[in-house]
Amino acid sequence: DSGVTQTPKHLITATGQRVTLRCSPRSGDLSVYWYQQSLDQGLQFLIQYYNGEERAKGNILERFSAQQFPDLHSELNLSSLELGDSALYFCASSVDLAATQETQYFGPGTRLLVL
Amino acid sequence: AQSVTQLDSQVPVFEEAPVELRCNYSSSVSVYLFWYVQYPNQGLQLLLKYLSGSTLVKGINGFEAEFNKSQTSFHLRKPSVHISDTAEYFCAVSDRASYGKLTFGQGTILTVHP
Known about the structure:
The complex is a heterodimer.
Chain A: E1 5-7, E2 10-13, E3 19-24, E4 31-38, E5 42-50, E6 53-57, E7 64-68, E8 74-78, E9 87-94, E10 105-106, E11 110-114
Chain B: E1 3-6, E2 10-14, E3 19-21, E4 23-26, E5 32-38, E6 44-50, E7 56-58, E8 64-68, E9 73-78, E10 87-94, E11 103-104, E12 108-113
Parallel strand pairs in B: 2-12
Antiparallel strand pairs in B: 1-4, 3-9, 5-6, 5-10, 7-8, 8-9, 10-11, 10-12
């Protein structure tokens, strides 16, 4: 158990819908990262937040957005869902801003299926 | 831009045999290198990381990796594998400018047969 929790574990929805994925980082971790794992794209970095502020952006679609709340939990919002958004979405957390040398601890993921 | 290439998508091996999972990276700056393992239906767990210093890095579960700057490689090795090592292994790279963002390879599925 990494200490990072993600809810829900599974999510099935229809095209065009909107969903929210939730992540609670390890106690004391200020940075939260979101990654998408799909069969065709592999594991890709989406976005990073540090202490409530966006710090880095990767291959995140405009239909996707995220935020980190004062209690440091984070939510990833996916809207106008398409079949191709079906994937495993991971949240990871680490202690500090740079985090380059810090280990990222991954949650168990949320498996999204868009029908 | 960084990239990571894992040269084998699948590696089958018999129990107690040695194994090497190959990883090559591309980056214009100094990098940090990582190996993560993903067991079925679980998240990723860090096996080991190279930040600086000794090029031979030892990790958990008996794994080790060697950083080779001239060949831009970071291959993962284990002298004797167990059935429980069956999993998918990911090589990843980061650097100082990335704010911790990890760029992953496509993964190598290690299957250990009895």
